[in-house]
Known about the structure:
Elements: E1 2-4, E2 8-12, E3 18-22, E4 44-49, E5 56-61, E6 65-70, E7 75-79, E8 93-95
Antiparallel strand pairs: 1-2, 2-3, 3-4, 5-6, 6-7, 7-8
Amino acid sequence: MIDAGNEHTCAADEAGAVWCWGFGVGDWGGSSSEPAANGAQRNRQRPTRVAGVPPARHIATGEFGACALDRDGEVWCWGRTLGAASEAQARPRPVGL
Length: 97
């Protein structure tokens, strides 16, 4: 499955691993849009695995973030979602519904 956000795209492969690429999705577990030395964010042109997300069965992207539904029915979100005010708060985390 694959879904496109504002300036990024995320997908889950057959094993459920989540991959994202593009700009402005925040900190994908420390391996994606880290701020550059001048404060600008990097644009990841190749898929980067999102660390900390269990195998997913569904992906949804938004303007500045994304969420995944894992195989146990738990929702994980990252990027600037749910009122995340900083990159440090924007790591993948479970979201109670």
